[in-house]
Amino acid sequence: MRIRYEDGGNHLNYSYIDFDKKGWIKASNEYETLIDKPEIVEEIFERIGLIQKVIVTKIRKYFKCGDFEVTLDRIENLGDFMEVEAKKDFGGVVKTRKACLDFLESLKIEYEMKKEAGYPRMLYKKLNKK
Prior knowledge:
The mean pLDDT is about 90. The protein has two domains: about 1-50, no CATH class; about 55-130, no CATH class. About 25% of the residues lie in helices and about 35% in strands. It has helices spanning about 40-45, 95-105, 120-125, and strands at about 1-5, 10-20, 25-35, 60-65, 70-75, 80-85. The chain contains three helices and six strands, in the order βββαβββαα.
């Protein structure tokens, strides 16, 4: 659960990610709505006992590349990341993942796959190792 502060509108977001046995994302459900007063939502979270674990600060650039969307992210205290997302179904999760990997290979960029990741999780692990 998070509050996303963005130019043009703030959002309340709840995400649920289901992983397969190999640690790859099998399904992801995300619910999001605009909120006018994020500071009130923060107060509600505090009053019901939700604890702020981490704040992710990022700069993101989007690129449309045919059937894919590429995002380049600079995450404060983590570094730079690239994400490839299919914008169509290539015939199920496995085939769609393969299409993304094939697209990534076509860019001829060295990369490290991050499964079971996500910026909040990675940042939390990094900050709590100290």
